[in-house]
Known about the structure:
Blueprint lengths: L64 E6 L3 H11 L5 E4 L5 E7 L2 E6 L6 H4 L7 E4 L3 H10 L4 E7 L4 E7 L5 E7 L3
Parallel strand pairs: 1-4, 5-8
Antiparallel strand pairs: 2-3, 3-4, 6-7, 7-8
Amino acid sequence: xxxxxxxxxxxxxxxxxxxxxxxxxxxxxxxxxxxxxxxxxxxxxxxxxxxxxxxxxxxxxxxxxxxxxxxxxxxxxxxxxxxxxxxxxxxxxxxxxxxxxxxxxxxxxxxxxxxxxxxxxxxxxxxxxxxxxxxxxxxxxxxxxxxxxxxxxxxxxxxxxxxxxxxxxxxxxxxxxxxxxxxx
Length: 184
């Protein structure tokens, strides 16, 4: 075990002329030992989260929404979602199972695959849901996609629930809406 050497506090130099002497005597206690602290890393400002990136409240801890659809026309579907609508992040599996996964946002994606074996009554739902894509500027998206050759069922218009919506269909007739939250 190492022993500590006690040192006396250093006495200050001789007092300056005219200076009063202090009535206190210097303490003979050892100076408090300071621990060496590691160099502090510069603090970074906390990352700001945008509202869009915030995790939605969920009783099941949902982190991502993914919807699978059956498709009779995989090549047309791929072209529509990747080339025309511009979703550039996608994954395609071929071989025993053909599957297309298209990333539509930070926490959402769509999947498409040919029908499974069996009759249509086993794989076709009575009515598929509308694909609703929230965009920053629906009018700009409408112009851009129209210039790419996408045909719309309805141009953008204001809806009573507070969105501005343009409607179209994918190659297999699924309803697709591009929507923007209207400013109040």
